Amino acid sequence: MNCKNDREFLNDLIEFYFNYETKGHFNIVDVDSYHRIHQVYKNLIQDKRISKNNWNYKKLMDKEVFDSYSKLGKDTPCLHEENDRGVDCYEDGEFFVIEFHSFDISMLNSLAQINEELQDFHGDKIIIDISDNEGGSDIVWEKLVSYLSGADYRYKSKITGHGKTSKKYVESYGIDVQGSESKFSYIDCIDIQSEKLFDFKKVYLIMGDKTFSAADSFARFSKSTGFATVIGKESAGFGTGLDPMLLKLPYTNVLVMLDSVGKYPETTKPTYQLNNIWIKDVEQYIVTNNI
């Protein structure tokens, strides 16, 4: 947001009111979140996953923004609690269960543990539970797929968005956007190359009504490509293939986070609807129905 006067600021706020809602990614970026996201994007630059022209990276590195958060200090309230449960994985009879409670970029470090424990697994059924996973980075689940499957994937999905700012954000990635500011669309394309570590054919994904953002992207990918059989409840949506966008507020120079495509989420429905999504219930459902 680069506002020349109060009227432009008001007009932008009105646009956000119509195009975004608080149950999505809408958040004020507090001090702890700023430093965490700042480090994540620095790591992405270091790993050459994004360029320094990335929209969010430039907002995070903005001198006025950095100075503002430095002045606020770490004594300010923390608005958002991070899910630090990470990953649980264990063998359960003929199943190997992986519970991803978050797709925070730090979860990449857990994949080595999963790989190691799978070496001793002699069954053929994998359950991945993302029923309470509220997202993070698509990079995590894409890497997981490359470990578990012997196949390569090229996946395309059409994403619909709304709003002038959202359209500019998507276009900043060099994506071909079709339509107007009031309603536009683009094709999200994901390429995954197998690491040739495993080739499990019976993979089951548990999703729920808290499955959100990057976790929703994973559910949609799994259902569309057949990577996994999707079981559970309809997701919360907002899996767009892009990170939520960051905007700098005038006067305060603090950041807000908004959904990259506005407030109309595209949810994902499971292949098999199941209300009881405890691990044991899902295992019994799979065995009983021979799926």
Automatic annotation (TrEMBL):
SUPFAM superfamilies tied to this protein: ClpP/crotonase (SSF52096)
Record-annotated Tail specific protease domain positions: 98-241
GO annotation terms (biological process): proteolysis
Pfam families linked to this entry: Peptidase_S41
Signal peptide: none
Entry-linked InterPro entries: ClpP/crotonase-like_dom_sf, Tail-specific_protease
Protein name: Tail specific protease domain-containing protein
UniProt feature coiled coil, ranges: none
Top-rank lineage group of the source organism: Bacteria
A GO molecular function held by the record: serine-type peptidase activity
